[in-house]
Amino acid sequence: MITKYFTKVSVKFDPFTASSRSARLFLSRIPPSMKGACKIDYKVLTANSPASEKPLVEVTFKDKHMMQADPETMNFKDLSVYFDSHSRQLAIKEAISD
């Protein structure tokens, strides 16, 4: 997973559901060196959480592009491929400009 271009990561998940595994794995794959450059917000959903709050993984990139994904319908591999698609575009732009 290419995390070099992340500026903000927001994750909402219910830790007691099977679908939370992909959200937890996504958070764990952000390297400690990025935690200073990338703001990480997470919210643990509980039984008392409003029904309007759904599990969500949201990433803001350096070019201010924001992408959202549903961790209930995507496994970790799908999440990483989804977010890497934009990271690769940014890497190509960066390589061209150098």
UniProtKB/TrEMBL annotation:
Q: Which GO terms describe its molecular function?
A: structural constituent of ribosome
A Pfam family this protein belongs to?
A: MRP_L53
Q: What is this protein called?
A: Large ribosomal subunit protein mL53
Lineage top rank: taxon: Eukaryota
InterPro entries the UniProt entry points to? Ribosomal_mL53, Ribosomal_mL53_fung
Q: Does the keyword Mitochondrion apply?
A: yes
The main location is: mitochondrion
Q: Which PANTHER family match?
A: 54S RIBOSOMAL PROTEIN L44, MITOCHONDRIAL (PTHR28236), LARGE RIBOSOMAL SUBUNIT PROTEIN ML53 (PTHR28236:SF1)
